[in-house]
Amino acid sequence: MPSYMEEGQTCVVCGDAATGLHYRAITCEGCKGFFRRTAQRHLSYVCKGEEKCDINKQTRNVCQRCRFLKCKAVGMSADLVLNEDERVQKRELIKGNRERRHLEQLLSLIKGPPADEAHVKELKFEIDLITKSYCQNIDQPLVTTVHGMAVSKDSQLAEMLRPIVRRSNEFAGVIAVWNTLPVDCQMQLLHHTILEVQLLRFVSFFDEAENCFRPNANLSLTQHDLLETLTVEVQDNDDMDELRELISSLFVLARSLAALQLDDRLLAVLSAMFIFDPSNVAQSSLIPAISSTYARLDDMLHVLSDEASDGMSTSRAFARLVMTVTAFRRICRHLAHHFNSHNAALFEKMLGV
User: Fold this and answer.
1) Going by C-beta distance under 8 Å and a sequence separation of 6 or more, which residues neighbour residue 313?
2) C-alpha 338: how far from chain center
3) Do 170 and 270 lie in a common domain?
C-alpha cells in the first residue's frame, strides 16, 4: 500500500478497495482501467436513465456513462492518460531503471572488498597457471578418429566426447583440489559442465561484423549453417522449435560476450568456475572443498575485473558479464537436454572445431 494512503481506504468512484492515486483520484484497479480505456479509445456511452445512476462496487458495470461521469466528477483527468507510444516509453524507462539497479547491485558484488597486494599477487600467479592449462587443453582444435568415416551417430558422439572429457579433466587438474576428489565426483562435475566449457570456447569465436562464428580463417558458421542441421537430424517438431530458439539465443549472447572482449584469462577462470560449481556436487562431505575453490576462483574474477576497470562504465560492463554468463549457462543447460544422437550433426559443428 502506498505511504500516502490510509489503511482500508476505498475507491472514490465505486467504494471498492483502493490501490493508489490514479489520474488524480484515489481509485481501485477496476476504475483506473475503465477510465484509461475510455480515454485512450475515445469511447462514448449512453445512460438509459437520466445520468443519475448510483455507482458502487455492485453497480459500476451497469451504467458506463454514469461511471465515467463520476470518474470525472471526483477529479480524474483524461489529460494524464498515456497513449500507446507513451505507455511503451514508460515501460522501457521502468525496465531500464530496474536493470540499472540490478547492475549496480551486481557491481557491488563484483568489486568486493579491497584485497591486499600479496593476496592479489598469489591470485594472479594462479590465474596464469589456469590460463596456460586452458590454452593447452581446452582451446585446441578437436580431432576425432571417426571424422569423415561412416559410423553410427552414437559412435560419433562418443568419439567426440572422449577427447573433450580427457582435456577437461587435464584442465581441471591444474587446480590442486581436483586431484583430491574421488573419480566419481570428478566425473559428476564434468558431466554437468563440459558442454558449458566447450560452448563458451565456441561463442568466443563470434565475429560481430559477419554475425557468424569463425573458429579459424577457413571456417565460418552462420545461424543458417547451424539451423540447417536440424532439418535433417531433428524429427520432433517441439524439439525443432526449441532448438531453433536456443540457437538464436546463443547468437544474441555471443554478440553480448564479444562486446565485452573476453581474453584467455577470463575464459579460463570462467571455465574453471563452471567445473567447480558446488551446486553440482551430490556428496555433502565434498561441498566445503568445492565451495572454497569456487570462492577463490571468484576472487580471481574480482582481480581481473579490477584490472580491466576504467571507471564506472567498464565496471558496469563486468556486471553485465555476470548477467550474460548466467543467461549463457541457462541456454547450455537447455541444449544439454538435446545432446543425443539425433542432434549429432549440430553438436559436431559447435564442438568439433
Assistant:
1) none
2) 19
3) yes
Cβ–Cβ < 8 Å for 27, 77:
no
For residue 147, count other CB atoms closer than 10 A to its CB: 13
Boundary residue ending a domain (81, 99, 127): 81
The range of the structural domain enclosing residue 49 comes to 20-81
- Report the predicted TM-score, pTM, of the whole model to 2 decimal places: 0.64
How far from 290 is each of 117, 142, 177, 283, 322, CA to CA, in Å?
25, 29, 8, 11, 20
Question: Are 177 and 250 in the same domain?
Answer: yes
Mean pLDDT by 10 residues, the chain (353 residues): 83 94 93 93 92 94 95 92 76 74 63 70 94 93 58 70 91 94 93 92 91 86 87 61 88 87 91 94 91 92 74 60 86 87 83 74
Cα dihedral 255, 130, 326, 246 sign: positive
- Residue 27: strand pairing partners: 20
Residue with C-alpha cell 593476496?
119
- Collapsing DSSP states into helix, strand and coil, what is residue 268? helix
What is the distance, to the nearest Å, from the Cα of residue 320 to the centroid of all Cα atoms in its chain? 10
Total tally of structural domains belonging to the chain: 2
The C-alpha atoms of residue 263 and residue 148 are separated, in whole angstroms, by 33
Are 234 and 240 a contacting pair, CB within 8 Å? yes
Are the C-beta atoms of residues 253 and 204 closer than 8 Å to each other? no
CA atoms within 13 A on the CB side of 154: 0
Sign of the torsion angle spanned by Cα atoms 308, 311, 317, 321: positive
Cell of 344: 549429432
Distance CA 102, CA 252 (A): 20
Is 271 among the domain residues? yes
> Looking at the structure, do residues 42 and 161 belong to the same domain, yes or no?
no
Q: Phi and psi at residue 278, in whole multiples of 5°?
A: -65, -20
Residue 106 lies in a domain: no
Which ranges in the chain belong to alpha helices (H)?
29-41, 64-73, 84-111, 117-137, 153-172, 183-203, 223-233, 237-259, 264-275, 287-308, 312-336, 344-351
